[in-house]
Specification:
With about 230 residues, the protein is of the alpha/beta class. It has eight helices and twelve strands. Strands 2-1-3-4-5 form a five-stranded parallel sheet, with helices on both faces.
């Protein structure tokens, strides 16, 4: 039987044992897999093959994973899941703040990683199928969401948001005035149906707020509710 490859995944890692494990399991799940063993190749392939998702190890030669993430986020919103060593907590935090969507730590559970990949790709597929009656969704003040085009406009300036950041803002605005826990945001925005690390939520919120404030201080209506989560103030 001929299986169709449904999504293209770029694996960036210089450890053959890790790449072999990832390639085997991803191909078994019918993903198309492309491998880069250094950051320079990763940036080139990301541009040439337009992957649907990138698995990015931080400790790679020539251009390290953090710089790869930084460069990609200048022009691309492609989902990035970082792969890090267990002792690299500061790198994980920096990576999330640079725009990575999530991370897993080595040694990682293949089952958990596959679940995270499926969740990200499911969210993208859902975005493509969602039909929203109104083209524009307005928040208080000068912030506008064009849902059809998936762009955010603040005072006539279009913000450079990733897919995840757009989904997060849209979700907060859809429940404006209500407090949403980090766990609920992980479930409904990231698409995880298991308990994940909520630092990914905090980092995404931090990036989103910074971009809103840079355009206009009044556009940032996101409020942190200590010990609970976040809400968009009406």
């Amino acid at each position: 039987m001929l299986w169709l490859m449904t999504h293209r995944i770029l694996v960036v890692d210089d450890e053959p044992a890790v790449t072999d494990l990832l390639v085997y399991n991803l191909q078994k799940a019918h993903y198309e897999v492309i491998v880069a063993d250094d950051g320079q190749k990763a940036l080139r392939l990301a541009h040439e093959v337009s992957p649907d998702l990138i698995l990015l190890d931080l400790m790679i030669p020539i251009v390290d994973g953090l710089d790869v993430c930084r460069e990609l986020r200048k022009t691309s919103g492609v989902p990035i899941i970082m792969i890090t060593a267990r002792g690299e907590e500061i790198d994980r935090v920096v990576g999330l703040e640079l725009g990575a969507d999530d991370y897993v730590t080595k040694p990682f559970s293949v089952r958990e990683l596959m679940a995270r990949i499926k969740a990200v790709l499911r969210r993208i597929k859902s975005e493509e199928k969602t039909q929203v009656p109104a083209s524009l969704f307005y928040s208080p003040g000068e912030l506008q969401l064009d849902i059809d085009a998936r762009i955010v406009i603040v005072e006539n300036v279009t913000l450079n948001l990733t897919r995840l950041e757009f989904d997060l803002l849209y979700h907060l605005l859809s429940y404006a005035g209500r407090v949403l826990t980090r766990e609920r945001l992980l479930e409904q925005v990231w698409g995880y149906d298991f308990v994940g690390d909520t630092r990914a939520v905090d980092s995404a919120i931090k990036r989103l707020r910074a971009k809103l404030r840079e355009a206009s201080p009044e556009a940032d209506g996101i409020e942190s509710v200590r010990g609970v989560g976040y809400r968009f103030i009406k």
